[in-house]
């Protein structure tokens, strides 16, 4: 879709909210809390979570951290001016709220606040029980502080600033507490923060299906580094019985693309889940940040943008 950048609003150090409106006559599609859009900017395609209230019509809002160490997408976004026409995808949601939850705990690390802000907006409107725990380096880097100080948010929100010392940091075990069926946790932020939350939840006995996470980054967890795991293998597409060679250093998606087969992709980093594909035979070597440990252990699906094979042949449901 074509959209117009209406406003670029600084909301914290190195963080701006971008307000986007339809550039044509068609209205923007509705979305649910936790959804993100792909944004095409300066040759990059980047995923940004929608942070506005899902019921707000007429505009999308995304929060973008300007990261000088990034590959260029966030820097290009921050260089944009009001009136710029951009191309975006329709909203996609791999991080939805569970409507059956009776208690919701939102845990944000840094810019990971963006999808959780939309969740807080929705939970507040619905009058549901929730709490928001926001971990950030210092107060100047905390986005949406004015909004979170308003009634309906302030009593549910807890800030933790690294600048205030170790005593002020979050006690994950205490925040999560004991699990129960209607209690769900949602975490978004840097990989280290998410892994800490997942570890604390596992130690407390939380069922995996009650802990939801979305990574902002491409650091790969426990990827194999031995030569065999990173070597060449073959892929068979069950739908046409074509066999493709996947050389070392080439992803499955790239090998298929070279052979004239396009697989829908978005982030190409194993984060968004767009290219999730069923595995009919063979053992994947998972390199993604999207699947849960239980889903990886089942070995019946993989993300071909980043994952490889532990067996000489993979048969995919394509």
From TrEMBL:
Task: Tell me the cofactors it needs.
Answer: FMN
Pfam name, any one = DmmA-like_N
| Molecular-function GO terms, alphabetical | vanillate monooxygenase activity
InterPro entries given in the database record: 2Fe-2S_ferredoxin-like_sf, 2Fe-2S_ferredoxin-type, 2Fe2S_fd_BS, Beta-grasp_dom_sf, DmmA-like_N, FAD-bd_FR_type, FNR_nucleotide-bd, MRET
Q: Which residues form the 2Fe-2S ferredoxin-type domain?
A: 233-318
- The residue range of the signal peptide is none
Q: What class of enzyme is it?
A: oxidoreductase
Keywords attached to this Swiss-Prot or TrEMBL record, sorted alphabetically, are: 2Fe-2S, Flavoprotein, FMN, Iron, Iron-sulfur, Metal-binding, Oxidoreductase
Determine if Acetylation is one of this entry's keywords: no
Q: Which PANTHER family match?
A: CARNITINE MONOOXYGENASE REDUCTASE SUBUNIT (PTHR47354:SF1), NADH OXIDOREDUCTASE HCR (PTHR47354)
Record protein name field: Vanillate O-demethylase ferredoxin subunit
Report the source organism.
Paraburkholderia silvatlantica
